Amino acid sequence: MNSMRKNTRRLGPSSIPFPVRRALLKLGKDIREARIRRRIPTAVMANRASITRMTLYKIERGSPSVSIAAYSTVLFILGMIDRLAEVAGAKFDEMGRSLWDEQLPKRIRLESPYKTRKTKADENQ
To answer: Is 109 among the domain residues?
Structure first.
């Protein structure tokens, strides 16, 4: 029966890079503070997000075991989902843009007006 199990590996606290852990802790703290500023009780927030109060508790403590869907739903309820959608946007990807810029051609050659283009009809003949 064990051979039928999927070979999945859960990330333990020691396998998560420290900057990721720190970012999750900050996100959880910020979510908790945003909920409190809006005066939303935990039971109401959990109900709106269709999660248990324990899951909300884990989110507010930055637990890596909670799905990103649960984090996203809580952010949606708080009116902050747009910021999540932009996290990996091109305007924030400085390294990706610089790598892309390195691959751009140094010059662009225009096609000669005297060169004839082959069309699909020409290829079929």
So the answer is: no
Is residue 109 helix, strand or coil? Answer: coil
Residues 27-82 have pLDDT tens digits of 999 999 999 999 999 999 999 999 999 999 999 999 999 999 999 999 999 999 99
CA distances from 103 to 3, 98, 100, 106, 110 (A): 47, 9, 5, 9, 19
* CATH number for position 97: 1.10.260.40
Q: Residue 116: what are its φ and ψ, rounded to 5°? A: -90, 140
3-state secondary structure of 16: coil
